[in-house]
């Protein structure tokens, strides 16, 4: 994002968080403001005693530099990381484990994000949470720059080559679309990501007219002044049409003709003020016509970006059915 006068006001959540989550089963590393990596540490190797006749070459006494994520310039400045070695715990991540790329809704609380994060961690995926800021949307060029930054992170050794599952909710779908734009433009090595995506979950996307977008801003930013924010946003879109409305229309075209053709699952509802269900079904039909395997779950009544909370059993059974062919295991039974 740029350094405009409002960038500090609308910056993503930057709270310090503990280095371990899930009862110590998972490690948390903040890559940068708004982007956090959660992973399962590798089990500690079973090494022979010092005086064992076993060759020390089979079990080195010290890890090679590449096994320590803190030696990477990508992860070395994480203020939230707890030094696991001081607790005699491993702190290395597998670079072959599938990666969940999660784009939450605007203003998502940590406890809400944790429910989705843990859902996938328990299924054997590592998770990269990418939060979106309102200025990424209001000034799309900053959103595109942010998408480019996410793409560069995905090309780092810790993430490159991994299978990727995408879960985008609400405005998170907009940020994911910025990545699709970069892939479609063929910039750098970005096109390779399209082949790495094994599935995409589109949850409560904001689809429809500019008015739907303006309503979304009002409901999210200042609910008590929803009408005022909506009208202000519509005026802003008109005033900076070439930098906003035209850019949004191009984003919609790219999304409809997405370069990522992995199987997709859409969650939406008929009563969502931020999403036109007719426009959503049109997108689904377009994807299917292009040969994309698309599943969908539509509710007559639900809550934007909270379908899992409103319809937990239905939501989870639909998700499990979608993930099964992708070889993503259900969580282990808890005793």
Automatic annotation (TrEMBL):
Pfam families on file: DUF829
UniProt superkingdom: Eukaryota
Compositional bias (Low complexity): 68-80
Residue segments, region Disordered: 49-94
Molecular function in Gene Ontology: serine hydrolase activity
Biased composition (Polar residues): 81-94
PANTHER family the record matches: LD15586P, SI:DKEY-5I3.5
Protein name listed in UniProt: DUF829 domain containing protein
Organism: Scophthalmus maximus
